[in-house]
Write a structure and sequence with these properties.
Elements: H1 12-15, H2 35-87
Length: 94
């Protein structure tokens, strides 16, 4: 059997010196977040992000549709203007 050595316990003044007490930092409280709670907390930001994404998608589609429409108009306008010039050679430039 191993021998156990005993030591005298230090005096209370040595083991627990009087240090200046600093303001104790409060312990952080544990917060439980559920998925529903997280969604509820972020609802406004999620709504804004969704609206912004929809606006960007609509703007892109509308822009493309307008470009296609203008291209179609030009496809018809150019030959019509050329025919008009043939019928009226003295007409001003179109």
């Amino acid at each position: 059997m191993a021998e156990v050595a005993t030591f005298p316990s230090p005096s209370p003044a040595v083991s627990n010196p009087q240090a200046p007490k600093l303001a104790e930092t409060p312990k952080a409280q544990r917060v439980v977040i559920t998925p529903d709670g997280l969604i509820a907390a972020l609802q406004g930001k999620l709504q804004q992000a969704a609206e912004k994404a929809v606006q960007a998608a609509v703007a892109k589609q509308v822009g493309e549709a307008v470009r296609e429409a203008l291209s179609s108009i030009d496809d018809v306008r150019i030959p019509v203007c050329a025919r008009f010039r043939n019928f009226f050679p003295h007409a001003s430039k179109l």
